[in-house]
Every structure is written in C-alpha cells, then in structure tokens.
Amino acid sequence: MRFSLPSVLVMAGLAMAASSPALADNLIVNGGFETGDFTGWSGPTGSYTFVSDPGSTQVGVNSGNYAAVFGSVGSLAGISQTFSDVAGQLYTLSYFYASDGETPNEFQTLIDSVVVSDIQNDPAHDYQSYSFNFIGTGSDTVTFNGRNDPAYLGLDDVSVSTAATPEPSSLALLGTGVLSAVGAIRRRMLAA
Fold this sequence. Notes:
Layout (H helix, E strand, L loop, with lengths): L4 H15 L29 E3 L16 E3 L6 E8 L5 E10 L5 E7 L2 E7 L4 E11 L3 E10 L4 E10 L5 H24 L1
Antiparallel strand pairs: 1-2, 2-9, 3-8, 4-7, 4-9, 5-6, 5-8
C-alpha cells in the first residue's frame, strides 16, 4: 500500500489528536461556592469557616461572587466533598487559594485522608492555582482544612477532572514512527 506525504501527515495528526488530553466535566458540586453556601460540601467543621458575601474584604474571590473562607482559631476547621469517579482513572484536583499573610495560619489539602499539601505560615498572596493528580478509586473525597488565628484564608474554583493523558513513551514511539514513515516516503519520492 502506498501513502503520499500529505496522507501520512493527516494520519499522524489524527493519531496525535486521539491521544491528546480530553477533559471531563467537573466532578465537584458548587466548587466556586456560587450558591452562597456550602451546598454539595460536608461541613464546615469548627468555627469561622464560611462562604464570603459578595464584595467581602476578608480575602476576596478568584472568580464569581463567593469563596470559602477559613479563619478558625487554634485548630484546623474544614470542608469536604465525596464524589463518584472511575476506579483506576487519572484525575486532577485543582483550586485557587489565597492568604492574607497573618500568622499563625495553615491550609491543608487532603485526597482520601492523605495530606497532599500542608502550607503553614503562608505569606500574603492573591489567589494562586494549585493542582494534584490522583488515581480514582470509584469514590473519592477531597478535604480542605484551614486555620488563620488573626484573619482569613480563601479557597475558590475547586474542580476535579479527568485527563486521558498518554504515556510519554507512547508519544515518543508515535513520533518516531511518523518521522520514519515521512522519511521513507520522501526517499521514494526522490528516487522516482
């Protein structure tokens, strides 16, 4: 079977498109807290954990009108959400977090009771993006715990999505095969 250079390039493009990440819908309910409360979340545990009012000056918002605010004194207080997913699938938890810089403060992120981030005495910063990959078990839980004795920490735009990311070795093998095919076709065209 003979292939022309353009047809090989089209096939390579289709193969790469098929192997590129495909994001699923967000598995988190009310990840932006835009209901104005903790609908979809368990908690809050402890005190001084609430959803900010629009225009609040505690820590502001990353997007929309609301954000979760953590200001527990003396110990961590938090929220969690359990969601269904596909066992064995790779997922990404992402969110935006802000600190007003007042200390002592602490902000923890847990996936299925495993601490994946524990930020302590964080200096002041606007909302910054954080993300962590994990393998789904069929039912997983994300938990956020915060403490800021004199003031507040902010959380906004929480999401869990899946990405069908190919192995790097698979992409390298695909690229090598495409380059070999292009080279062979070019040599045949030059020889003809």
